[in-house]
Amino acid sequence: TITNHLPTAELQALDAAHHMHPFTANDELAKKGARVITRASGIYLTDSEGEEILDAMAGLWCVNIGYGRDELADVAARQMRELPYYNSFFMTTHVPAIALANKIAELAPGDLNHVFFAGGGSEANDTNIRMVRTYWANKGKPEKSVIISRKNAYHGSTVGSGSLGGMAPMHAQGGLPIPDIHHISQPNWWAEGGDATPEAFGLACAQELEEAILELGEDRVAAFIAEPVQGAGGVIVAPDTYWPEIQRICDKYEILLIADEVICGFGRTGNWFGSQTVGIQPHIMTIAKGLSSGYAPIGGSIVCDEVAAVIGQDEFNHGYTYSGHPVAAAVALENLRIIEEEDIVGHVQQVAGPYLKEKWEGLMDHPLVGEAKIVGMMASIALTPDKASRAKFASAPGTVGYVCRDRCFGNNLIMRHVGDRMIISPPLILSPADIDEMIRRIRKSLDEAHQDLIDKDLMKAAS
Ligand code: PLP
C-alpha cells in the first residue's frame, strides 16, 4: 500500500507514473519530482523529508484559518454519519445547505441575499455565465449576452470560466473562449502604465469598459466580471481611480457587475468581501476557497434580490450533483463560525494587515524590488533590473521569477511567481512573529536570487 511511510523517491516515482498534475511544467516535474506534502499545522506544511515549510500561499489562496483545525474534522465526521449526501434538486433540501445559505446572506453586503452552490469557483463562474444570460433573456432581452472581462484575469479552468478568464496560454488550448466574451485591459500600472500616472492609467483602464460597451452595443452587453484585487494575475491592485469609474459605467448602462471574490472573499482584504474594500456593489459575487478555508470543496454565487427574482420566474436548468453538498456545507459553516468568533477579519484589518504592510513595503529597499503592493493579506512585488525606469528583464518573462521562486522553495517558503512578479497570500492567522519569520525567509531568498542573477548574467534590462 502507498502511505506516508514510503521513501520520497518511491512516492515521486509512483506520482509520476499515474498522477497528472494541474498547471505544472511537466518537463521540470519529470526531472525533479514533486515535493510530497504529508501533513500541515497552522501556517506550516511538512514534507516527506520532514522539512517544515512556511506556506505563504495558504495552499491555493484558500486556507484562511490555517491548517489543522480539529473542529472542522469533527463537524465533517458528524455530518458524514448523519447525512453524507443529499441534494436540493427536485423539491428537496437539507439543513447544512439551509444554514450555510442563511449565514452567507447575513454576511454579504446589501441585498446579496441568495446563494446558488457549486463545487468550487470555476463551476460558480459557469453558473454566473448562464445566470446573467438567463436573467436578460427572462427580461425579454436575450441579445444581451456578452460578458466583458479582463485580459490576464483568472476565473477558473472549465470551458466557461476559462473563457471568462483572459489568460492567453489557457485560450491557446482546447478552443477557448466560447462566443460572446470580450476582454479589456487590466489595471496593471507597473507593467503597462507607460508614462501615465497611476491615477490617469486607472481611469483609462476603467473607461475601456465604456468604450467596449459602446462598440459592442449597450443592448448586447450583459455583465462585467472582475476580481476586486486581481489574484492569480499577479496580485494587481488597481489605482484608486479605477473602481469608482467601473461602478459608474455599470450603473449608467445597466450592466450587471459580477465580483469574483473567490480569493478576495472571507477576510483576505481586511473586510469580509473585497468589494467592500474597493467600494463596489456587485449584483453577483463568486465565492469558493476561503468559504471553507479549503477544508472541503465548495463554492457558489451570491445573488442580489432582483437577479434572484428574475431567475426564479422560471425553472433554471442548471445545477451540480455536489451543489450545497452537506458535508462541505457543514464544514464551511464551521469555518465561518471560527472566522467570526475569533474575529479573524478584525485581525487582518487591525493587526496582521498593518504589520505586514509595513514589512512588505520595506522590501522596496531591496535592489530587485521595483514595486511592492499589498491589500490586507495579499501582496506582490515586481522584480526589476532597474527600479527607476520600471524596466523589464531581457530574459523571457518568468525566467527571473522562477529563479526567485526556486530560492524560496529551497528556503522552505512557498511563494509563487507570476511572470517576474512574486506573490503571497498567507493564512490570515499570521501573528507578527510569523510575519517576521516569513519576511526573513523572503529577504534571504531575494538576496540569493539576486546573486544567482548576477552570476548568470541575467540582471539585464530589456531594450
Ligand atoms: N476565480 C478566481 C478569482 C480564482 O482565483 C479561482 C481559482 O484560483 C477560481 C475562480 C476558480 O476556482 P476553483 O479552482 O475552485 O474552480
From TrEMBL:
CDD domains per UniProt: OAT_like (cd00610)
Q: Which cofactor does it need?
A: pyridoxal 5'-phosphate
Annotated NCBIfam families: PRK06105.1 (NF004767), PRK07480.1 (NF005682)
Its protein name is: Aspartate aminotransferase family protein
Entry's family note: Belongs to the class-III pyridoxal-phosphate-dependent aminotransferase family.
The GO terms this record gives for MF are: transaminase activity
Superkingdom, according to UniProt?
Answer: Bacteria
Q: Cite the entry's keywords alphabetically.
A: Aminotransferase, Pyridoxal phosphate, Transferase
